[in-house]
Specification:
- By secondary structure, this protein is of the alpha/beta class.
- Helix content is about 35%, strand content about 15%.
- It contains 9 helices and 8 strands.
Length: about 230
């Protein structure tokens, strides 16, 4: 069976060698379950020109209440790269949102062993191979760990080249819970791994904003290389 892309929005040409946001699996909140059961969900229109930041075009107003998406959108603003919902440009269109697992659930339930089940590894590698992203933002601390596994890393390097900087963590001084943000570099890709945007207990907006230099700098380099240098050449 031919594998299909696992996206939550319209495909755009800018997503090739673009920025990939990758979580654990698709969320399915209790509110979503109740709406589905009551038939209160409008038909999904993935070809409506919607980007990650304006999913209302695909899913209706409920899209703007999803904590996972809205927190990530807020984080981009903290890092100095606010996403335009009303008039998406090349940057917004270059973002491809997917998940390591093409499954749906209310939570991972603390069991992350499923990430290394072959079908889920295949799903992740398939999207990496299809988009060849210049930057990957992993949304969930266990993802950078699982990416180092022998079932994953060798296949990833076949696409993205050798690892040029081993995984390292940055942890900021903060009066509250201090999460680690991980970084790893490959010949053709930069990876950052952040706490899960809606499932990390004690995660504070002010703490995430402290990573403006690291993650914001990564996004600035991405924009410069993809849009400014490519248009000048």
């Amino acid at each position: 069976m031919r594998q299909q892309l696992n996206l939550a929005h319209t495909q755009f040409p800018q997503q090739q060698e673009g920025l990939m946001i990758c979580g654990y699996e698709w969320g399915y909140s209790k509110t979503d379950q109740e709406n589905d059961e009551a038939g209160n969900v409008q038909p999904i229109e993935l070809n409506s020109g919607c980007t990650f930041s304006n999913k209302g075009l695909c899913y209706g107003p409920r899209a703007y209440s999803w904590p996972y998406d809205q927190n990530i959108i807020k984080w981009f603003g903290f890092w100095g790269h606010a996403l335009n919902r009303d008039n998406p440009g090349d940057f917004e269109k270059s973002i491809a949102q997917t998940n390591w697992c093409n499954t749906e659930g209310h939570s991972m339930g603390g069991d992350y062993t499923k990430l290394l089940i072959p079908v889920h590894v295949d799903n992740f590698i398939f999207h990496v191979d299809h988009f060849r992203p210049s930057v990957i933002l992993l949304m969930g601390s266990k993802l950078i760990e699982k990416m180092q596994d022998g079932k994953v890393l060798g296949r990833f390097k076949q696409i993205m080249g050798n690892c040029t900087k081993d995984p390292f963590a940055v942890q900021k001084p903060f009066n509250g819970r201090r999460f680690k943000v991980w970084f790893q570099s490959f010949e053709r890709c930069e990876v950052a791994c952040l706490p899960h945007p809606s499932g990390s207990h004690g995660l504070n907006d002010d703490y995430i904003a402290l990573f403006r230099d690291e993650v914001g700098g990564l996004l600035s380099r991405y924009k410069r290389n993809k849009f400014e240098l490519s248009s000048a050449s």
